[in-house]
Amino acid sequence: MIRPLEIAAGLMLATALVLGLVVPPDAVQGDLQRIMYVHVPSAWLAYLSFAATLVAGVAYLKTRRMRWDHIAGASAEVGVLFTGLALVTGSIWGKPVWGVWWTWDARLVLTAVMFFVYLGYLALRRSFDDPETRARRAAVYGIVAVAQIPLVHFSVVWWRGLHQPPTLLRPGDPQIDGPLLAALLAAVFAFTVVYAALVSRRAEIARLEDLLAAPSADETVAGSGVSAPPIVRDTR
Amino acid sequence: MIRHVTTLFVAHLRDERRAGEVMLVIVPFGTVALLVVPMAVGIDTPLLDRIGPGMFWVVLLLFGTIVTQRQSASLGESRRDMLTLLGVDPAVRFVAAALAAALLLTVFAVVIGAVTFVLYDPEVVDPGWLAAIVPLTCAGIAMVGTIAGNVAGGLGTRSSLAPLLVVPIAVPILLAGAQATEGLRMGLGILRWILLLSVVDIVLALAGVLTARPLEES
Amino acid sequence: MTDWGWVGLAFAVVYGTLIGYVAVLVRRTARLSRNREGR
Q1: CB-based contact A140:B214 (threshold 8 Å)
Q2: Which residues on chain B are in Cβ contact (under 8 Å) with A119?
Q3: How far apart are CA B46 and CA B49, in angstroms?
Q4: What is the largest CA-CA distance in chain C?
Q5: What does the pLDDT look like over B135-166, one tens digit per residue?
Q6: For burial by CB atoms within 10 Å, which of A109, B1, B208, C8 has the most?
Q7: CB of A233 within 8 A of CB of A209?
Q8: Which residue of A has its CA nearest to C5?
């Protein structure tokens, strides 16, 4: 039951892993720079998932087809994962470079805020039993949250603009070209395919869960001798 | 339509007067928080002066969220159903609820501000500007809180869920308020923060009004 | 810790998390299929 997309994703991920480890080290930062090959794709996907969750939510409100809600929820779950990874890898990269696990760099703060928006969105989804209520409320919150994100961006950038920390390494800053750039692009592409595969699978799970939770047409009324035993739902 | 808004607005305030949740519960809670912080960070006068304004904004945001989730914020299932039957636009309900929350928040802010002033003795420069900044932040928090309350629905996890929904996206409001008061102190221009607050409020108002109907329809 | 140590840590966290998440998804799919068949 493994899909072609998933096989492709797995192979690409393995390739990206190998490339990240074998390409020559950066001239300035040395081997430490290799963390970029997991940090940048994670950050990219954090933002992509976010956008996808919004778009899927809007699509749900327009079409009222549950498929979009399943995608929205799946994208948010995968998104929170990658946002968390972006933060953690950013920290791991930062510690040897700046000596601290966290700095109040605008981009880090923004990513952290996004992480909590995701968490809130997922908590909101979990609080509903009825799939349609869940879909509607989550879509609306998604829209409101995303509408605020540019403003969050400006407020944080203006705030940190007054005290920019020195030599803050941005993922794009190391002058990369040639094999290093190729490795980075390969990683970004591979991770994106992985994202698609994960969302696809996760959305399918959501669809099945909704199906199982809903009473089916041929289910007999309570009291009949042939009703199915209660299904224990897998809770996260 | 304005009459609908006014009627509902007054209804919210009357509910709150009967319940007394904001003045008798949340204000004391916020005050206790302000009291407790120096116990944790130290009562060094320059330190408290330094963090005083920031603490005010944090308490306003965090506890203000509780204000927006108060019992009287929700009109109750039966009244809501009646309003729907009568054909009252959901957007009207949002506006009325947000306005009521904003007013209560402003009252809350004034009281908490006074407490901060007493406990932390911050240096206040150009207090006149606060007359613009505080209502704008209160309006913003009110709107986010009202939307969050509508979206979170059911009473079970609402009290813990709503703050999580509100606080991250209210970051611009917090930053604008805090940076504005900091800016006043340092003699910097604060117009950009007032501008940001205004834009945030407009965006939130639009979001609240435009999503009111999709939220209702089942 | 050496540079390669940090790199290893970052890679382990990321790839480990991805593999772990995939495992979770696989398990949930299996359980759902079993439940469906039980109907």
Answers
A1: yes
A2: 164
A3: 5
A4: 56
A5: 999 999 999 999 999 998 766 666 789 999 99
A6: B208
A7: yes
A8: A32
